[in-house]
Amino acid sequence: MYAQQVDTGAKRLKNLEEMSPEERHFQEKVDAEVRIEPKNWMPEGYRKTLIRQISQHAHSEIVGMLPEGNWLTRAPTLKRKLQLMAKIQDEAGHGLYLYSAMETLGADRDEEIEKLHRGEVKFSSIFTYPTLTWADMGAIGWLVDGAAIVNQVPLQRCSYGPYARAMIRVCKEESFHQRQGYEILLTMMREGTDEQKAMVQDAINRFWWPSLMMFGPSDANSPNSAQSMAWKIKRHGNDELRQRFLDQTVPQLEFLGCTAPDPDLKWNEETGHYDFGEIDWQEFFDVLKGHSPCGIERIQQRKSAIDEGRWVRDAAVAYARKQEQKAKSAA
Amino acid sequence: MADWTLYEVFVRSKHGLNHKHVGSVHAADAQMALENARELYTRRSEGVSLWVVPAEQITASAGDEKEPFFDPADDKVYRHASFYKLPPEVDQM
């Protein structure tokens, strides 16, 4: 998920009898699928959890532009460059939709971005991996955006109105991302040299497991997951979504003529799903702790983008004031 | 963003339809808000017209539905066409 391991502050779920009248009224609304809007009463835990989840999600969209930006100047054709640029612009847009939704909860955008830069808030583990070849642009579009879609589709029915509505717009745009990614890989496999085909397989080998990790560890015993499910800001378990992604992805992998770096991956006639091997969760937790190939570099890039862009923002404010003055003196 | 105004954004998706709220943008002035809103909310021809309004200029009814603000409408069933029972011969009205 783009938001991983979001803390809800809950040790266990309260039942309706234990709740205050306001809390009970709130929970009954959520249970009845009535959307919660910014000015409605909500438990403090719900507000804080949503801010954590949405800010992490927004940061991931923004940081997610960096691994792709790495290839913008080296895209193989003008067409590919324009497509990649459009995709990256969409990611900026997704980040902004999400920051807007977060602000309706009373959170301050600058402050949340500061928290990211201080390492107090995370972004998705997937964007800490380097993009080494052009095939990585295909693998990211196909696998990473594919996994994001599986995660985000249920969030269109999230209990918090502004978040759900942002997700509807995001999901509409993601499908272009996934298809353009797959088309990059398909073109390389069909028309490429042996070296280029090997590049595709190598990109898949590197992004396969990190994509499966995006859904987060099994949440069978997590009080955070149970609380998020009760609040309907999470609608399916991590394992369920991971399986859904895998089941739809493996046939696409086979169509490409590539393989997964998982000897245990095979169709299970009985369950009607693909079985797969053990995920290396140590790698996932290491990445979250900051022990990752590009984690620190990504944050530094974000910081310098803000610092070096300051003069543009200052100029915009100065220009706006000047225009205001002009309008006044003309009147 | 703190020193930039928050603008709410409304898009008319097609000629003949009303403007609909889609989200918000921060901007240094209204013109910039329009341009930011165009880049953010109409990248795929989603609109033919845009409004941006400073969020602080909007006056809203109280948020919670328990609020009696809308009560006056609840006890006036005679405002609905279905209240008036007519014989089958003229019920197509």
Automatic annotation (TrEMBL), chain B:
It comes from the Bacteria. InterPro entries: PaaB (IPR009359), PaaB_sf (IPR038693). This is 1,2-phenylacetyl-CoA epoxidase subunit B.
